[in-house]
Amino acid sequence: MMDWTDRHCRVLHRMLTRRSLLYTEMVTTGAVLHGDRARLLGFSGAEHPVALQLGGSDPADLAAAARLGEAEGYDEINLNVGCPSDRVQSGRFGACLMREPELVAECMAAMGAAVKVPVTVKCRIGVDDQDPEESLFRLVELSAQAGVQLFVVHARKALLKGLSPKENRDVPPLNYPLVWRLKRERPDLTIVINGGIGSLEMAIEHLEHVDGVMLGRAAYHTPAILGQADARIFGEGGTVSPFAAVEAYRDYVASELARGTHLAAMTRHMLGLFHGAPGARSWRRILTVEGVKAGAGLEVIDRALAAVSGFEAKGVAGGLEAGEAAEVAHAQ
Question: Is 262 exposed, middle or buried (0-12, 13-18, 19+ CB in 10 A)?
């Protein structure tokens, strides 16, 4: 989720769900230790609970970065052993570390010794020609011996040669039963499943076999599903509508605008809020076209929201005109 789940995105998602754990985009140890820490690690207190996801393979550097993350107030420090991008491979971290489970365990031991908050692993079931039944279970076993109690498993291999990062999210076949089996054989561990899960209905089915479900693209592209998570997954509260989420997000947007943040940096994460609803196309168009203009402010969000509200009201009244009906048909 690099370049997607930044701090603005996470605050929006928190407006939809109080209970779900949010993860940062992956940040490398080199960037954390030598870059702009305020920008890379800064987050709003509204985001809790939130986990910092690190990329790296040097135990000492990971331990130092974990300490900085804990000092910033993150609730969990996660090591990414699943990202297949070329730049990640060239830095010897991400999915290529599936080939070095001993090193992963060493990294996790160093991180665990450095902080008091939980340290966790996000991994694939294997890479390239590895046997997933060996690679996944070996990685988990060694990391568990190093003190890790929670694993987020993307239930497909990463093919590091010949596939792009995008293709690696879709092409290698999913193997959910292997992750379910991991939980059966390691009931002492917390196992979270990830990969290709596009709805809360699917998440609920997986929760019959594992402890948790991570949503990535589904949560980003159709964030309104998060508004049902507290009620349907955690059994708490009611559904948060996209309208309520926008209203709750306004104060944050206003405070960021006052700090000089461009509106588009925040509204780009809102484009899918009304996915499939009447007026969704107008919502996206107004935010995309108007939100990038110099000096754009809350009035752009209000205008976009009014467009969606207008379509909703007309739809309820049952009197859509031909042009409006076409708008509904094209809503994504």
Answer: middle
